[in-house]
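Revision sheet: structure tokens.
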Amino acid sequence: MEQCACVERELDKVLYRFVMYGHLSEESLDELLRYVSEVRRHLASSGLKDGDLTGIVYSSMSQCCKNIKESLQRLASSHKDIHGSVSKVGKAIDRNFDAEISAVVADNVWELQERQKYLSETIVEHLYRQGMLNVAEDLCKESGVAIDIGMKQPFLELNRILEALKMRDLHPALEWAVTNRQRLLDLNSTLEFRLHRLYFISLLSGGMKNQAEALQYARHFQPFATQHQRDIQILMGSLVYLRIGIENSPYRHLLENGNWSDICTIFTRDACALLGLSVESPLSVSFSSGCMALPVLMNIRQVIEQRQCTGVWSHKDELPIEIDLGKKCWYHSVFSCPILRQQTTETNPPMKLICGHVISRDALNKLINTGKLKCPYCPMEQNPSDAKQIFF
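Predicted:
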């Protein structure tokens, strides 16, 4: 990301120079217009005869042309500086980004039709998540990808509710939360209470005219009395200050705009959880991971080429080193066999022994002796068939 920041700084310089050049041009032209108007006014009010005006007009016009020429030269010089700044942006891109990345990518990664189909489906799903429905439909037509209406419909509903929340309309979200109440409770979600809380706060912001409606609406808090007792007490206490306005009371934090952005985030998280989807688009996560990993891989490739280390990185479907993408990209645990010191895979999964210790299947097979297995960590002997595969 440091490379992007370097290019962004150069772009900021160019934009700044464009703005300053615009201001300079306007000031120079305004100054010339004022000067020409002043010369014209002076000549018109001089009261001299035609014979006397010849020398004065020639002198004035000469000075006027000189000023115009100087202004043009000054603007041309500034314009050259802008060209220099624009060229620096291109150099910054060339310096910070390597255009040739095929050396760290498998050559045949997209040759299979099935992989191209998966990529197109991933892009379409990302577009649906972003609410770009028309673009997604066009991509489906051009790529030949057929998206089931059952997959599309949840995203349409999700975007419809999010658009309403952005317009501060809570009704669609409340209807959705009530319909999915039991499933949300199974997730220990607080979405429905937060929606009712925000609606109650919106009534409070209306002042005394909404007092009766707010008291009536407070009945919606009854199912949440045990779990959210403290929050409900705060909401009820704010009613005392309706006459002077909540914004002038100790409860003014209830009116913060951040409540609306928070409810959009919570709704997206819980809705995606009910749909069995991640909160972030897989495409955006993959793109971010690639941005972090690609510079490291390019540096490794450069070191390998400089030191002429052949065979160090022979297969493109594996990495020569471990690349830390941060905890944000941790989605599941990776188990390493304590016996063979290898990470488990689909063909070599982790196996739980009856004593509770976990080893890989390859290690289990190597430890079998005359049909019996002795745990390498405790003296318990057991039947290898009693081991069970576990999933992280």
